[in-house]
Amino acid sequence: MTQVAITVNGKATSRDVPDTTLLSDYLREDLRLTGTHVGCDTSQCGACVVLIDGKAVKACTALAVSLDGSKVTTVEGLANGALHPMQAAFKEHHGLQCGFCTPGMIMSGIDMINRYKAEGRTLDEAAIRHELEGNICRCTGYHNIVKAIGDAAAKM
Amino acid sequence: MSDGIGARVQRVEDKRFLTGKGKYTDDIRMENQAYAAFVRSPHGSARVRGIDASAAMAMEGVVGVLTGPEMKEDGIGDIITGWSITSKDGSPMQCGVWNPMVTELARYVGDAVAIVVADTQDLARIAAEAVVVDYEILPAAVNLVDALKDGAHQVHGNVPGNLIFDWEVGDEAAADEGLAKATHVTELDIVNNRLSPNAIEPRSAVAIFNEAEDHYTLYSTSQNPHVARLVLSAFYNVAPEHKLRVIAPDVGGGFGSKIYIYPEEIACLWASMKLNRSVKWTAMRTESFMTDAHARDHVTKARMGFDADGKITGFKIDTIANIGAYVSLFATATPTYLYGTLATGTYAIPGVYCNVKAVHTNTAPVDAYRGAGRPEATYLIERMIEVSARQLGMDPAELRRKNFIREFPYQTPVLLQYDSGDFDACLTKAQALADVAGFPARKAEAAARGKLRGLGYSTFIEACGLAPSAAAGSLGSAVGLWESAEVRVNPVGTIEILTGCHSHGQGHATTFCQLAAEKFGVPIENVKLVHGDTDTSQFGMGTYGSRSGPVGMSAVLKALEKVEAKVKKIVAHQLEASEEDIVIENGEASVAGTDKKMAWHEIGLAAYIAHNLPEGMEPGLKETSFFDPVNFSFPSGCFICEVEVDPDTGKTDIIQFVSADDFGVIINPMIVEGQVHGGVTQGIGQALTERVVYDESGQLVTGSYMDYTMPRADDVPSYKVTHSSTPSPTNPLGVKGCGEAGAIGSPPAVINAITDAIGTDDLQMPATPEAVWTALQAAKMPMAAE
User: How confident is the model at residue B786, as a pLDDT?
Assistant: First the structure.
């Protein structure tokens, strides 16, 4: 067991966890933040994407003990009274059906917009589709997810 | 009314999903909950000679290890199938016994041998690894064609030759006659590739035993919690129905794979009683690949005859369908009554005959997955018609038009009666949207860049609204698939709609409520859907087979009509008017031609104030209804796919995908379009990337997302979706169902486009770059390929 302190959605958290604890388990089981979903065991599906110090990371690829002192944002930490522009865009464009991949899609979408903005690059449809290669959706056929991220990019 | 039928209402259920507050089964945690992991056969075919759980039991925190023989001893029943098929010689089907956990023989990789329960998830998995199973590895029957050959390994002792049934539909003599008089016969060998459904939420179960009440609760990733409760009770003897509550909370996609009641749910319930602990199990993705029911997996030889005018004269189909190691719930209906009965497609064919041999193999059970039988039929017919057009030198659209059915209702030669349709309208709309006229110029432009452009059609029809009880019952189904509904108007006027359907992405919480908005003109915010819990809603059949619209919503409509009738009586009494003069709209009831009216909340309250109701009327405002359709509904449509193939690599890019669907009446276009997008993408996945592979020993090769290629965002284009509408006369709403069309119609459109591009029809799914490149080389150098 190792004590780890991680700021999650702006709140300080601290737990004694086994060294094998994945961030996804720390969030889901220790903090009971179950919005971060686990859809595979090979880091392929992307349902567990969160932001670690502002960058998108699959929470199933990070050990909690390696993140002492980090700031993590999960899908629960986005809405601030009103929905975050990315969440609002997903709703407006019907970018979700069963909702299971949605948290990862939203976090990946925010990350790609932030990166492209910082680099001064244009996030067009082809770029969005390419950037979503780490997120699998089985319901929407991606069509409305791509539209939602494109729309959010204009509003963020 | 803006929230009613046809309105593009945004989903009322979205907020919880967008903010991470959805409640899926794996999100549930009980006090003192234990976790389960399964010991699974690593062999496709093996005898379990012994199980040594002592090392696992010695681990601190391991609660118990339970096995198949103990389960059998406790009287837990074998897993059932729902539809009995009769072979063409009149004999009943033969199928192997499916013990929820292995009692003697493990018959596929993943077959559950023991359940290990421990204090933590990790410990359960570690302890499962420590259970030592003594396996005697046996020969395996894996390939569906080989499994029928003499000398093949017998998967079950009571199923000679692994043949479950040898079924037929149609008129063989008429088909033979049609083929004999044909001036051209097209022959085609089709492989319909085996798929894994892959809902992104893995299956999960939380079983809770309450010793004091002798009562069980099961949280389950189920598309049909009531059916799960019935089957767990009546057939698996877990508990009587009133002592078992099944809750399917938010469910992360189903696509058919969460219809079935799997061994894991049975084992968790049983273990929760044996160990007196709540038991949670959640599949690893690898377990999903091993044990979620697989799909498709047909091998077919077919012949279609044409006269000199291009009219189809006869169609004869021989199919072998892989059922897997055990016969799952809908496994026998899928390759028969959901396949052979669609063999005529959108075409008038005088002689049609379809023979299906269903076979046991040492692979995971195969069952219904989005489309279920209809994609297999559609792929066959639509490949056949396109290949025939090429061989006849005809335009593929014109050959279709020459053979389209145009009068409805239409009695097919293969049992079904099509309700309505206008296949020309869909084809014409799709051609315009796809700019088919401009295709030659685009092809030339691509050729100038060294790329091969192709265009492919699919004009499909499917049977939805599963299922009219009379038809299903007469064909061997154990139950008919009606649906129930209840509408409750509360004293403050808000409305609750209860249904036996289950939403796992389809947006029922929005679309079902649109019906009340349409009927009474109330705002949708004042309406709520209740579903997914056997304690709250009346028995119903669940969601699959595009049935929630045609069947489930029709039941809701009937209940709304009963509420409407009672409201009119109440209002007429209150306003001292005649019942016939009461008009309900915009959330109020008024007396026609007067300014007398009651607001909806006043009506709600009035219904519960019993001293001022019409003479003899019972208080309250709650109505129940059951709807059993008289026939299936028949969505149809036209898809046109345009691809560009890189001849150097064989890689296919889908440049454009157009759909023109006839879903009858559409409740919410936004949601319907979303269903099309998703279905088409699954079909493109089947056409381009997806395939479950077993090696010859029965080892699963595609056991993760590293090996099984899911379509991703950059594998598919943005879609162009349009509609044409012929309302269904088989239900009062006129809806046809939209959940499966995309997956049903799209694979042949894609393969027709690729084969058009590469100039050879010798190509099977999935059309991976390797497969396309190989086909191209073989076509270029036929000698070298031989």
Answer: 44
Q: How far is CA B405 from the centre of its chain?
A: 26
Residues of A in contact with B26 (CB under 8 A): 34, 38
Interchain proximity B202–A130, CB inside 8 Å: no
Computed on alpha carbons and rounded to an integer, the radius of gyration of chain B in Å comes to: 27
Q: Sign of dihedral through CA atoms B461, B557, B722, A98?
A: negative
User: Quick check: B388 and B349 in contact, CB under 8 A?
Assistant: no
Mutation pick from B9, B14, B15, B18 vs chain A, by most beta carbons of A within 10 Å, is B18
Q: How far apart are CA B57 and CA B125, in angstroms?
A: 13
Q: Do A41 and B286 touch (CB under 8 A)?
A: yes
DSSP state, B484?
E
Which of B693, B695, B690, B698 has its CA nearest to residue B715?
Answer: B690
Per residue in B125-182, pLDDT (tens digit) is 999 999 999 999 999 999 999 999 999 999 999 999 999 999 999 999 999 999 999 9
Interface test with A, best of B8, B17, B673 (most A CBs within 10 A): B17
**pTM for this one?**
0.97
Cross-chain residue pair A102–B29, CB shorter than 8 Å? no
Residue B4: pLDDT over 70: yes
Cα–Cα distance for residue pair B773/B786, rounded to 1 Å: 16
Distance CA B269, CA B280 (A): 9
Measured in Å, how far apart are chain B's first and last C-alpha atoms?
66
- Are B18 and A39 inside 8 Å of each other by CB? no
Q: Do A100 and B201 touch (CB under 8 A)?
A: yes
Residue B1 has pLDDT above 60, yes or no: no
Comparing alpha-carbon positions, the chain B residue that sits nearest to A106 is B18
- Residues near B332 by beta carbon (within 8 Å), at least 6 away in sequence: B81, B83, B84, B85, B93, B95, B164, B165, B323, B358
Span between the terminal Cα atoms of chain A, in Å: 40
Average pLDDT, integer, range B705-715 = 97
CA distance A77 to chain B (A): 8
pLDDT value of position B474:
83
Q: Are B91 and B125 in contact (CB under 8 A)?
A: no
Band (B472; pLDDT cuts 50, 70, 90) = confident
Contacts of residue B68, defined as CB under 8 A and 6 or more positions apart, other chains included, come to B99, B100, B101, B102, B103, B112, B113, B114
Three-state SS for B671?
helix
Q: Name every chain B residue with its beta carbon within 8 A of the beta carbon of A143.
A: 674, 677, 681, 716, 718-719
CA B160 – CA B149 distance, rounded (Å): 11
pLDDT in the model for residue B782: 62
Find the DSSP H helices in A22-142. 23-25, 85-92, 102-119, 125-131
Q: Which among A32, A42, A147 is the nearest to B705, CB-wise?
A: A42
Phi, psi of B397 (to 5 degrees): -70, -40
pLDDT (average), residues B545-563? 97
Q: What pLDDT, on the 0 to 100 scale, is given for residue B685?
A: 98
Distance from CA of A140 to the nearest CA of B (A): 4
Cβ–Cβ contact A141 with B under 8 A:
yes
Do A72 and A52 contact (CB within 8 A), yes or no?
A: yes
State yes or no: pLDDT of A62 exceeds 90: yes
Taking only the tens place, the pLDDT of each residue in B204-217 is 999 999 999 999 99
How many A/B residue pairs have CB atoms within 8 Å? 178
Tokens 């080989």 locate to B146
Q: Which two tokens stand for residue B214?
A: 């002798």
Residues 63 through 122 of chain A touching chain B, CB cutoff 8 Å: 74-76, 78-79, 83, 87, 90-92, 94, 96-103, 106
Q: Which residues pair with B250 in a beta bridge?
A: B24
Q: Could you say which DSSP state residue B779 is in?
A: H
Ranges of beta strands (E only) in B346-494 are 352-360, 410-411, 417-418, 452-461, 483-489
